[in-house]
Design a protein that fits this description.
The longest helix has 24 residues. By secondary structure, the protein is of the alpha/beta class. α18 links the parallel β10 and β11. The strands form three sheets. It has an eight-stranded mixed β-barrel, surrounded by eight helices. Strands 5-6 form a two-stranded antiparallel ribbon. Pathway: Amino-acid degradation; L-proline degradation into L-glutamate; L-glutamate from L-proline: step 1/2. Converts proline to delta-1-pyrroline-5-carboxylate.
Length: 585
């Protein structure tokens, strides 16, 4: 099996005493200077300030001799060749055709040898757990660890991918034509975007075939988790939820969550609260009850039972986190799962009708997630749930959050992924941090810029909904740093919170190191991790590796005999790191 290694460097951070309820606005303003610790009380998960520590060592990313001293001369020559080829727009535009042509000309055996000497050897750690061990041990000696990741794409034609997507994203009721989909356009399957690989430069894609295939993916993820546990005391492994179940469920659940949140914002506008930060938007419960009753969603008695002191406290106000929690308590009351359509004035159901088989498929998906999380807990591996397209992401984030509630009790074992090229990234981060504080579980996050920009923009323009992506590269860069700064502030206050800074951008790495210095965070506390793809940015990974103890290790698997398709993923991943377009970094 072909194994792809994603490099993860070090554990950074330091815990300090601070209240977990610090307001986001105040936290953001504190980025320019030190916050006073006077008057703060120690909270669970924090520890008292320690004695003076040595400053963070200076990292020189321009010192190529140090950055590449772990590499042999022939490896440097291979890197130069491969990365220059990957920087060619003409080659990247036709890389799949060229790979197939080369394989036909050379034959499978010579093709495999050529690929292992070039692209495959640059970006893939090995074919099985034994073959990757030398590379893992070599990198670990230089302070660089790894993340185990499953790196295969199924060999499907665009037509086959489109057919599978349309079948798996449409309910039985919709296929039979006996009902019109109540989902918004963004959360419906569209044939023009059926092949989710199109326009995606740095992420693998899964298409639903059947439940047996999902079980097979789960078994592969389990092997990855076990291997990561054997290689390191606290390693990482990554999963994608679209590999574990029918995507129809993710679409429908995302639609529910989006409508429910939008309803809250509509009520906030009625109360004159529009424009406030997500964590600061609080509605008067009495006024909200009156509005909901007038809409005919439920009787006043039923509505009052939703808003109790047990669920909302005694403040008389309700925020977005309180509102979102109502879905949990109301999911069994299906007759009430409706929201008003402000355009038509009609009440519309949040959930479409599931067949018995669809309900079983949904249950199996949740069971697979639970099995993976339990295995990760058993072997001490952190499980990172990858972010995906925005029409799946609300459901993915919510399901990941449920896993965090269950498994992140003593330490963050489940990491959610936040795509900072999204306009609502900061709201998502701040709300989840606040929820972790309220409920007492450990926050764990991976921050990325995002992998689906071109596809997301094309889909929004074609189908007709608001582009979810920040308008410019500069806006995405600022959003990433804003989210990162907020999380670093939380790490200062909370010893149990952790973050993975997944970026190939030197400015972002420098920003992180500078803020760590200003906040008093230190590598020895292992709260901050840096992650880059294997073979992409050694000039960042290895200088960071000199700062502290060895980091995590892991490998990405693909099936035997799929070198060409694994390479297609790796070449696409290389493109944003070596081309003139930095927007996806």
């Amino acid at each position: 099996m072909a194994l792809r290694c994603i490099v993860s460097v070090l554990r950074f951070g330091t815990p300090r005493v601070a209240p977990l309820s610090t307001a986001p606005v105040a936290r953001e303003q504190s980025a320019a200077g030190e916050q006073s610790a006077a008057g703060r009380e120690a909270t669970p998960g924090c520890r008292a300030a320690e004695g003076a520590r040595p400053p963070l060592p200076v990292v020189d990313f321009g010192n190529t001799q140090e950055a590449y001293r772990s590499r042999r001369s022939w490896e440097l020559a291979r890197s130069l060749l491969v990365l220059r080829l990957c920087a060619s727009p003409a080659l990247l535009a036709h890389h799949e055709q060229l790979l197939h042509l080369t394989r036909r000309l050379l034959g499978q055996r010579l093709f495999d040898k050529l690929m292992k000497m070039t692209f495959y050897g640059q970006f893939v750690a090995g074919e099985d757990q034994e073959s990757i061990r030398p590379l893992i041990q070599h990198n670990r000696a230089f302070g660089v660890g790894s993340i185990l990741d499953y790196g295969v794409e199924e060999d499907l034609s665009p037509q086959e991918a489109e057919h599978k997507e349309m079948e798996s994203c449409t309910s039985a009721v919709e296929r039979e034509g006996s009902g019109t989909s109540k989902r918004e356009k963004q959360y419906q399957a569209h044939r023009a975007f059926g092949d989710r690989r199109d326009g995606v430069i740095s992420a693998r894609t899964y298409f639903y075939a059947n439940e047996a295939k999902c079980d097979s993916h789960m078994e592969t993820f389990l092997r990855c988790i076990e291997a990561s546990g054997r290689a390191s005391d606290d390693g990482f492994s990554a999963i994608k939820l679209t590999a574990l179940g029918r995507p129809q469920f993710l679409l429908q659940f995302s639609d529910v969550l989006t409508k429910w949140r939008r309803f809250f914002h509509q009520m906030a506008a009625e109360q004159g609260k529009a424009g406030l930060a997500a964590t600061d938007m609080k509605l008067e419960v009495a006024v909200l009850q009156e509005s909901v009753a007038k809409m005919g969603i439920a009787s006043r008695t039923e509505i009052e039972s939703w808003f109790t002191a047990e669920t909302l406290g005694v403040s008389g106000t309700l925020d977005l986190l309180d509102w979102s929690s109502l879905i949990d308590s109301r999911t069994e009351l299906s007759k009430h799962l409706v929201v008003p359509n402000m355009q038509t004035g009609q009440l519309e159901p949040l959930l479409s009708q599931f067949t018995e088989e669809e309900e079983l498929q949904m249950t199996r998906m949740l069971q697979r997630m639970d099995i993976l999380a339990k295995k990760a807990t058993e072997v001490g591996v952190r499980l990172m749930v990858d972010a995906e397209q925005t029409y799946f992401q609300p459901a993915i984030s919510r399901l990941t959050l449920e896993m965090q509630r269950k498994f992140n009790i003593e330490k963050p074992l489940i990491f959610n992924t936040y795509q900072c090229y999204l306009k609502d990234a900061y709201d998502n981060v701040t709300l989840d941090v606040e929820l972790a504080r309220r409920e007492g579980w450990c926050f764990g996050a991976k921050l990325v810029r995002g992998a689906y920009m071109a596809q997301e923009r094309a889909r929004a323009a074609e189908i007709g909904y608001e582009d979810p992506i920040n308008p410019t590269y500069e806006a995405t860069h600022a959003m990433y740093h804003r989210c990162l700064n907020y999380v670093l502030e939380e790490l200062k206050h909370n010893a149990k919170a952790k973050v993975m800074v997944a970026s190939h951008n030197e400015d972002t790495v420098r920003f992180t190191l500078r803020r760590m210095e200003e906040l008093g965070l230190h590598p020895a506390d292992r709260q901050v991790y840096f992650g880059q793809l294997l073979g992409m940015c050694d000039q960042i990974s290895f200088p960071l590796g000199e700062l502290s103890l060895p980091g995590e290790q892991g490998w990405g698997k693909s099936r035997t005999g799929t070198h060409c398709f694994c390479l297609c993923v790796q070449v696409r991943r290389a493109f944003p790191c070596t081309s003139m377009y930095p927007m996806a970094l």
